[in-house]
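Q: I'm building a small set of examples for a reading group on sequence design. Run inverse folding on the following structure and report the sequence directly after it, with nothing in between.
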């Protein structure tokens, strides 16, 4: 589908409307959303502007609906497209310094019959890939050595070997190749955002609205997520007033972006491999409204914290699960990050074709992660609204690959007439886009990581401006208890 004949404001409004209706929310609330028209914000053949604007608007509008249900004001929500897209670029500085977020060995490599993308940002993933290639582990092995070693592999053979070793690698596929894959077939049978009642429970009473408060005041979100999509969901809910308690394992590393995504949260350590850690998590769950987790399907269930076990501990809770490739199918348990899912599901080759490039080309931002984060926040709040109306315990599910399918359905930005041997597309209005400056959207705040320069939250509320009440703090800064 091409979208070049549809005005941008109509594209975003239609996407928001579709999300809202699929979640079973009141149609009348849509009139409170304002999505100003915008040209493409970043150079891409994909409709990332609509994806960012619509997904964030859905999360913000759901917060407004919750606030009104609690007796708060009826208010408008305005989401400027440029601000939403720029907020999805993981742009921030610490003490005036921009951090380098990618390991030098991460990226695309040519194989004997195609391309693979390696994710090496964590040392154990980097060393696992190096070991698989017969190279010295550690930070000193250069990218050129990795390229030389991979040149003798078939792309899917290396992908399969890496997956068997618990590593994170993806072979580059075309859309046609991905669509023929059994995991794509499983994905097509699932909704973008699954919101399912999984147990009976009475409606949980919310505290009444307090003058000057935020829509989610008093709602407790227990967050066990990592990297970007899950943390963005928790950060979004915190901006709307929720008490978000981020729980990390003291055994696992984190990425530098945690300084940005931890805004508004409490941050504690628990070791779920030890009985005291599991007991402490169970105690926290009994007082939580939401359990947001982003570990591989089955990982927390093996420790006693699957959705149904959580619902038994805390009747009426909303359990929220993020996965890379979806909850069913042959890849349901496979590890994956945004960059790898883009590669495996066809985006990198499609974007390369649009630009006339032979090398796989990623989207200009990690749109699957950020749209997933906003959609998780939206789905969480939609389930909370349904719990208040209908009772029950609920399970919300979303996958990065499912978000990718949704992004494809939003269309390409221009006529797809192939030109030249690589099938370069002519006259694609998204490709010449120039990134606007971030300066109009910045604020500077103190944190436990240092002085942060970050983007303000992009959703503008007419009566209760979204903001973060707590500074971003390193993992383990707070005790594992509710305020």
């Amino acid at each position: 589908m091409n979208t070049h004949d549809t005005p941008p404001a109509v594209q975003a409004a239609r996407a928001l409307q579709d999300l809202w209706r699929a979640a079973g929310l009141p149609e009348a609330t849509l009139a409170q959303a304002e999505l100003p028209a915008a040209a493409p914000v970043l150079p891409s053949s994909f409709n990332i502007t609509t994806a960012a604007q619509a997904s964030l608007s859905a999360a913000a509008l759901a917060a407004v609906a919750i606030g009104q249900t609690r007796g708060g004001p009826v208010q408008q929500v305005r989401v400027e497209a440029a601000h939403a897209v720029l907020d999805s670029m993981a742009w921030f500085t610490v003490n005036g310094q921009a951090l380098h977020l990618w390991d030098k060995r991460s990226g695309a490599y040519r194989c004997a019959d195609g391309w693979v993308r390696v994710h090496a940002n964590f040392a154990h993933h980097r060393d696992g890939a190096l070991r698989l290639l017969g190279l010295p582990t550690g930070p000193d092995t250069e990218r050129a050595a990795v390229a030389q070693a991979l040149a003798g592999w078939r792309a899917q053979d290396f992908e399969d070997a890496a997956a068997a070793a618990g590593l994170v690698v993806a072979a580059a596929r075309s859309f046609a190749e991905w669509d023929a894959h059994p995991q794509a077939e499983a994905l097509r049978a699932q909704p973008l955002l699954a919101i399912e009642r999984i147990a009976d429970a009475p409606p949980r009473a919310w505290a009444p609205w307090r003058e000057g408060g935020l829509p989610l005041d008093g709602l407790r979100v227990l967050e066990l997520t990592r990297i970007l999509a899950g943390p963005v969901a928790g950060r979004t809910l915190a901006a709307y007033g929720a008490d978000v308690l981020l729980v990390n394992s003291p055994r696992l590393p984190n990425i530098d972006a945690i300084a940005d995504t931890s805004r508004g949260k409490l941050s504690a350590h628990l070791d779920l491999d030890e009985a005291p850690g599991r007991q402490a998590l169970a105690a926290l769950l009994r007082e939580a409204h939401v359990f947001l987790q982003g570990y591989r399907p089955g990982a927390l269930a093996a420790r006693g914290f699957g959705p149904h076990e959580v619902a038994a501990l805390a009747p009426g809770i909303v359990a929220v699960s993020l996965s890379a490739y979806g909850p069913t199918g042959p890849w349901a348990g496979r590890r994956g990050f945004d960059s790898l899912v883009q590669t495996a599901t066809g985006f990198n080759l499609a974007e390369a074709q649009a630009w006339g490039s032979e090398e796989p080309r990623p989207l200009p931002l990690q749109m699957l992660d950020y749209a997933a984060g906003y959609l998780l926040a939206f789905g969480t709040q939609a389930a909370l609204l349904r719990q208040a109306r209908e009772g029950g315990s609920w399970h919300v599910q979303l996958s990065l690959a499912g978000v990718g399918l949704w992004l494809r359905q939003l269309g390409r930005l221009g006529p797809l007439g192939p030109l030249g041997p690589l099938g370069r597309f002519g006259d694609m209005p998204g490709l010449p886009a120039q990134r606007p400056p971030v300066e109009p959207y910045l604020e500077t705040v103190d944190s436990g990581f240092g002085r942060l320069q970050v983007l303000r939250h992009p959703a503008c509320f007419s009566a209760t401006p979204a903001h973060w009440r707590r500074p971003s703090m390193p993992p383990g800064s707070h005790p594992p208890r509710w305020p």
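The longest helix spans residues 367-390.
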